[in-house]
Amino acid sequence: MNEIMNMKTQEIKQILYDLGADLCGIASIDRFDDAPEGFHPRDALPSCKSVVVFAKKMPIGVLHSPITVSYTIARNMLAHELDVMSVRFCGMMEQYGIIAVPTGTLGPTFQDPKTGRYRNIVSAKHSAVAAGLGWIGKNTLLITPEYGNMVWLNAILTDISLEPDAMLPASPCKDACSLCIDICPVGALGNPEMNQNACYAHAFRNIEGQEWTFSCYQCRTICPNCCGSRNEYMKPRTS
Questions:
Q1: Using CA atoms, how far apart are residues 80 and 101, in angstroms rounded to an integer?
Q2: Model confidence over 53-64: pLDDT tens digits?
Q3: Quick one: which of 38, 110, 146, 151 has the most CB atoms within 10 Å?
Q4: Ramachandran region, residue 12 (left: φ > 0; alpha: ψ -120 to 50; beta: rest)
């Protein structure tokens, strides 16, 4: 018990940084009151008291390529790395008597019986907002001050009370900006929730002559907040 009490929030974060995380934040369980029924952290871990969210940045270079293979490789590799890190972290927490549960970077996904929408066990994006890592933009992507929307996320549920990070005050999306909405080839954006079926049918598909790739991410690339403050010089080319 003493070991558990001595585990500080910063120590928890440092473990994930040492495992390779680029960002890490903590959300207290009271910040999930609006979670959809069946997808609340306590639906997956009844004793959950804190949600630990961490991210890895995506290489900006993939946005400069006219083909989507490089983006797909980076996406898949980062998702795998995040899942490996989360399982390792959960195992390390057991040494301190802490229960920690991974939720998966890309899923598995479940269909919400009330809305028909597909959801992860717990939304990593909404958990990241609750943990003070960023905001959800009009393109439905998490936007961080450091890396813009070029991050992939993972959330871990824990049964210990950790000091939560302060939530960020306001979204960087300007009211008049509609770049991501206008560029979407299937009109999936612009409503309170993305049209999942339209987006997935267009972006997750086989292209003739090549293996499966993630074939569309225009809403990510065109965003003025794409790359964040640390990568200003690496913003995608406009011509």
A1: 16
A2: 999 999 999 999
A3: 151
A4: alpha
